[in-house]
Amino acid sequence: MNTSIGVGVLGAGTVGGTLISRLVDDREAIATKTGLELCVKRVAVRDLAKERDFTVDDGVLTDDLLSVVNDPEIDLIVELMGGRDLAGDLVLAALEAGKPVVTANKELVASRGPELIAAAERTGVPFLFEAAVGGGIPIIRPLSETLAGEPIERVLGIVNGTTNFILTRMAEDGADYADVLAEAQELGYAEPDPTADVSGADAAAKAAILASLAFGTWVGLDDVYHEGIEDLSPIDLVFAADFGYSVKLIGIAERIMGGVSARVHPVMIPVDHPLASIRGATNAIFIQGPSVGELLFAGPGAGGAPTATAVLGDVIDAARETLAGAQVAPKIRFSPGELVPFGDVATKWYLRIEVDDQPGVLAQVAGAFGSAGVSIKSVWQEGEGDEALLLIVTHRAREADQQEALRHLEEIDTVRSVAAVIRVESEEA
Amino acid sequence: MNTSIGVGVLGAGTVGGTLISRLVDDREAIATKTGLELCVKRVAVRDLAKERDFTVDDGVLTDDLLSVVNDPEIDLIVELMGGRDLAGDLVLAALEAGKPVVTANKELVASRGPELIAAAERTGVPFLFEAAVGGGIPIIRPLSETLAGEPIERVLGIVNGTTNFILTRMAEDGADYADVLAEAQELGYAEPDPTADVSGADAAAKAAILASLAFGTWVGLDDVYHEGIEDLSPIDLVFAADFGYSVKLIGIAERIMGGVSARVHPVMIPVDHPLASIRGATNAIFIQGPSVGELLFAGPGAGGAPTATAVLGDVIDAARETLAGAQVAPKIRFSPGELVPFGDVATKWYLRIEVDDQPGVLAQVAGAFGSAGVSIKSVWQEGEGDEALLLIVTHRAREADQQEALRHLEEIDTVRSVAAVIRVESEEA
User: Fold this and answer.
1) What sign does the CA torsion over A15, A17, A22, A27 have?
2) What pTM was computed for the model?
3) ipTM of this model?
4) Mutation test of the interface with chain B: which of A75, A122, A283, A292, choosing the one with the most B Cβ atoms within 10 A?
5) CB-based contact (8 Å) between A320 and chain B?
6) What are A47-52's contacts with CB under 8 Å, separation 24+?
7) Where does B149-299 sit in CATH, by number?
8) Cα–Cα distance, B114 to B131 (Å, whole number)
9) pLDDT by residue (tens digit) across B355-369?
10) What is A4-135+304-323's CATH superfamily?
């Protein structure tokens, strides 16, 4: 029986380089454990002259992407180049040619998932992307296979390690956002251009994938509202702790109001929630369902080695299927469903408001909420000379109504500034 | 395209009953989400007259087990009857007849796994047992698929909810083992005959399965040393907390000394270890690997609903494969490996020793350890009248040497009793 699989890799950055090293160095160990001979036949890179941490035979490196996809000796494509257009076209070409594809590209899956999944279904080959969410944490298979029969209600995920590292340092050391970001960049936890991480865009792509798999309704990247951590101040993390909350950047996928909602924003979450204690660059995904109850998956969410482990698991799985010569049964199926616009989602808000310290201000502020139909749960007031600080937590109300209250607030003369707004997740109304 | 699958269920206890209810009640929802028509054709029960929580058509219930396996309208068998002999023979017959089998029977998998996996491989059908470990927590697929390329070093699991419930109550309320056991029985967290849980036997079957999948070397039920929680006293849980440890019943699967070790016993684990904070009947599995780092999976480890979710996920997966008409690629492969006898495993011990309060006793006690080649890490002594209490923590030493030290201790006249022995897991030597 033939047990050899020719592997072509598109992109040899951090994850790609680590994967290739392991395919080459652990070739025998993998063969012993799995019975598969995984042979790296070609690796497409942008710069042939650049020095690499891995060693491959002469002629394996190429800068011709399409030649890898078209090589008849290559049975399986691993896409680790990133981006959605070129990468997506190459993945599509491979799937249409009947070659299984493994990718870690969350942006690609979140933007072109249905098209690629449909192509894989037509030719009956695996299209696997375990590494696209949560790095080394197994989450795609559990969601799409183990929990296939569970009407999942809610998925909450800390799915971006950079922002969780920054928030942990801000909360524990009272450090400013800008200082911690600079530190994270020095440590390699944040990119030189950190926008995708700190803006919530990276987490939004992952939330889109989690929502799509959890609910079986396609949620695209552009369907996910996202808001980042750039405007958070350490003082609000302190107030949050006083109130019994941690502040985390969380991807939320929920079945609500007969539809599906997916969004990413900073969240005040009760300190006894399992996600509240996830520190540093660790990722964690929390799943709720009526039968299965509450599940937590935690581990390293990024980094070359854990992500390469997830990619390698997919490569082994796809290679097994390919050698079995099977028409692969599609594991993912989308049916139509309604997306709930973010403005209709009911949330609770925490607000820090700077006001003139004079009689009647609180009544005016309360009126702003009242006229928007938002009711206030608690107010905490502190005077400081001629200025006072109001910390307000509202009851649950439509996001659009909360935004209306915010506009009313900003029109009040005695309101100097709405200095912070953070949404609150808790069981209570 | 035919999308209908005839399902036969062997056993309709708590898990079986819940599964059947969901297959019947959620039939349309499952069809929408997965594209599969899952039809419960026959259910084998011991007592046809017993009232059931689920409703099936006339003629579906039977007390003839073999008729379910042999029914040509049944494409897929779910085994939930328990036990290893009869259940195993029926599962084997189904697999040999080319019918996929899903089971939650940990004892069966841990005792006859290789035989059944080989039979499934011969006929190319799925043999799935996600529910056998960790109830609703997805762990079998992550271990055998996502982490297939990771040379896993260590798996630590709280895999028995009954004992974790009892230990949590003992630690938090200082309650006696016997009292908490009685309470757990009243609450339905413990069986009327709790032996399998409290003796560690249930956890041993799960540890055998985890070790086999993690290391790709078959570890049978009888290869797992196990020790239960029956002899633990609340006072040792208090001392453990003073020293910075929690006491948990843990299944340990490790690659050590060029081989594989699997064992279950009470463990003092540092309070900052992720498993230390797992409370009540929750299960959790902690995995360490050189690339993936540390992963934690937590959730409800037992109960009809979560376990039925895991079984249903397997049923859907097996049904998809069956409809794809594919020769299923085997996901699990065992290669030879050495099992390290428990006596050769290096462990640290905590001991509570009652001695006469007189000069020279400590020297005698220290001598008992020294003559067995075990070195002492710390001693804490407390006098109480003419009796003294010694709390000793040793450095890591071979289990057999620790046992020899124990025999020497028990021969010393001034040692009244070795009142407690608990093994300690920590990073230090």
Assistant:
1) positive
2) 0.93
3) 0.90
4) A292
5) yes
6) A52/A12, A52/A17
7) 3.30.360.10
8) 18
9) 999 889 999 999 999
10) NAD(P)-binding Rossmann-like Domain (3.40.50.720)
